[in-house]
Amino acid sequence: MDSHAIATEHGEHELHDEAHPAYLRHHFVTVDQQRETASFGMWLFLLTEIMFFGGLFMAYLLYRNWYYDAFVASSNTLGIGLGTTNTAVLIMSSFTMAMGVYSAETRNRKGLMTSLSLTILLGLVFLGIKTIEYHDKYTEHHIPGASFSVEDFVHPTDKRDVPLAPDMAQHAQLFFFLYFAMTGMHALHMIIGISILFVLLFQAYHGAYVNGHTSTIDNFGLYWHFVDIVWIFLFPLLYLISRHPLK
Amino acid sequence: MSNTTGPVSHEHHIVGPKTYLLILTALMVLTATTTGAAFINMGVFSPIVALGIACLKAVLVILFFMHIRYSSKVMMLTVGAGFFTFLVLITMTLSDYISRNWGLW
Fold first, then answer.
1. What is the spatial distance between Cα A38 and Cα A222, in angstroms, rounded to a whole number?
2. Which CATH number does A32-240 carry?
3. ipTM above 0.95?
4. Model pTM?
5. How far is A12 from chain B (nearest CA, A)?
6. pLDDT averaged over consecutive 10-residue blocks of chain A (247 residues)?
């Protein structure tokens, strides 16, 4: 029986095998259309995320202008080494995630599992370094609230630091509030991301996402890269731009 | 097939490891640059340089890691609209606050 005979006998079914794989939902005409619709929807969600983090960025920019001296002094208490390391770790995890998307598209199950595992690992390293930084803030009494101490800002131990007036030093709490809100929200996104990664890894282990249907992996990749972009902006704003304050 | 006049959908493009490695290298170099630049006193230009590099890094991630470089125009427009709206949030709010007590800050 040649293929033409099959086509006339079971025309509909043969089409289903080639242009209509099982994962193509009936309300889409082509696989490309389904793929683009899925990633369009994901981007709409990411746009709401831009506005969510945007509000925090906006608050940071405004208060940095209002309480400039307090923000400069507070920003310089953050460790630039840990910040840079974390930036590199997160960019690396974005690369491994991108390789995960590539592996899914090229139907490479092993590559996909390796990439997802490495992404999980790098994500956990990032959170580990973040925990060390948070712990430093705790021991320095730089967590805003009842146990916050203005001591480091009113009587700085480093001779190069300009002492702040006590009322301005109180505004350092605002910096640390925004620091914890922004990095905390970012970390929460990473914790959610890592949890989803474990599920994806489990599913990939059982053979998912290497049959041509990669939308879930694609969309998770978009989420992970977005979280990376948020950090790309948090890093200079929190750690870098206050090293040389204007007099 | 009945869909010859069907939806215009963008042809899928697979981005390869070569591109990803190149972008990874660029992002790492830019990270080192921005950290190095933070130790140089550039006055008012320090934040501008730092945020400029951050924007460049973000654009690289969006275009290549997030495949927007290879996406359809409607996707590019959607992403552009999102960041444009964010810029509106920043510029409108800051220009309001800055102009409110003109000369007093």
1. 11
2. 1.20.120.80
3. no
4. 0.91
5. 10
6. 46 55 90 93 97 96 94 95 98 98 96 98 98 97 95 88 92 97 98 98 96 95 98 98 89
